[in-house]
Amino acid sequence: MAKALRVSAWVMGLACVAIGLLHVVGGNAAVPGEADAGPTLDSLGRFFGAIFAGYGLAWLWAARQDPVPATVVRWLAAVFLLGGVGRLLSLAVHGWPHGFQVVLAAIELVFPLVWFWLADADERASRERRPSDARTGRPTSPDPA
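RE: above sequence
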């Protein structure tokens, strides 16, 4: 499970950076069916693309930690879930979006549940790899000699 967490964090990070940069560079053309949405939405989309790339960098940072920090994974998963909830609100207010957006909403509502489940997998595996002090339960310090 620890490997699944680390691999999914890497994949998520790389995907978000790539998607974010696509929106920064492509503007409205990066949104299916919205190439002519106008300059205001183009500006907004490029800005949010940069934010999404930064979100992906946070996933990559987490994936590089040893162990992968469960608290960070939970926060990042919660942000992604909030994006899915936002899509549900949009659906309720404005109706069904482009089919690709529906697929994205499903991903944004399901994947966070997997990350919540896997969040502490690497921390648990790390504790199992390290000997601990029987009295305190804390990892033992390396021998200074």
